[in-house]
Amino acid sequence: MTPRIVLTLAVAADQERPDLAEARNELYLAAVARHGAVPVRLDARTPAAARDRALAMMDGLLLTGGADLDPARYGQPIDGARDVEPDRDELEAQAWAAAETRSVPVLGICRGLQAINVFSGGAVLQHVEGHAGHAWGTGPAATHPLRLVAGTRLATVLGPEDLLEVNAYHHQGIRAVDLAPDLRPAAWADSAAGPLVEGLEATSRRFVVGVQCHPERTESTPAAFERLFGAFVDAARTAVSPGRNA
User: Could you confirm whether 214 is annotated as catalytic?
Assistant: First the structure.
């Protein structure tokens, strides 16, 4: 069966550079399509009925990158967060709840990693100096080392190397103290604010994985990350309902 992956995306028309925003969206869609999944686009402008249908039929959920989550979602005032999009937060909270109810696999990228943590009861450090270089499409990516945690799902997928050089397009992060109770660190990176959780996963056997880097941007990502998209789509394939038409 062909899995259907719902992707929550930024509304390109609302961004400062709509052309670049749509190009970023297309990278996520291509990443799951090349592993045999059908990508299903959702954004904050998707009508409610279409949103409900997509979430009821999804076999996997990909929470993509974008604006900061509203700190009110984790009980804090704004103190470094910027360009929040409450309508996108609401979309993704609904998508997360549907994925939890139906136990479908979830992959989070950048904002998506932070969303997994916040929706699971964690928090976000609202600003970290030195982790946001050129915006994508405007110059070379900033990079830094990522240390995988041995024995985790993420390390199993990305190994055998335990140290990878990854891109960095974010100004927020998750410290150990910010991590939700049902999640565990799967990768770490150093920062001016101390060690940051830049890979996380569920403590259960279900595929729930988040990475802070952008593996869909293949020009600045180690080739090993292509296996992460493959593992996610494979997990979604096993989650396909036997009664659903292909």
Answer: yes
